[in-house]
Amino acid sequence: MLEFLANVDVFALEMFFIGLLGLAGLAIAFVSGTVLVNLFRGQK
Questions:
Q1: What's residue 15's pLDDT?
Q2: What is the model's pLDDT at position 3?
Q3: What transmembrane ranges does the database entry give (predicted)?
Q4: pLDDT tens digit sequence for 3-43
Q5: Which of 31, 13, 12 is nearest to 23 (CA)?
Q6: Helix H segments across the chain?
Q7: DSSP 22
């Protein structure tokens, strides 16, 4: 496993995890926005 990690470009690995972090942030923002819209809609 460690030999495989030594051959992988660190920059590519870093971009992959930053992309995952960005996708997770977008998903969290979407869910929180949906929850807020439903909360305000339920008050009317």
A1: 93
A2: 67
A3: 15-40
A4: 666 677 888 889 999 999 999 999 999 999 999 999 999 88
A5: 31
A6: 2-7, 10-43
A7: H
3-state SS, residue 8: coil
The predicted model scores a pTM of: 0.65
The two structure tokens encoding residue 7: 């051959």
Rounded Cα gap, residues 38 and 18, in angstroms: 30
Quote the CA–CA distance of 8 and 6 in Å, as a whole number: 6
Q: What is the largest CA-CA distance in the chain?
A: 60
Q: Is 44 helix (H, G, I), strand (E, B) or coil?
A: coil
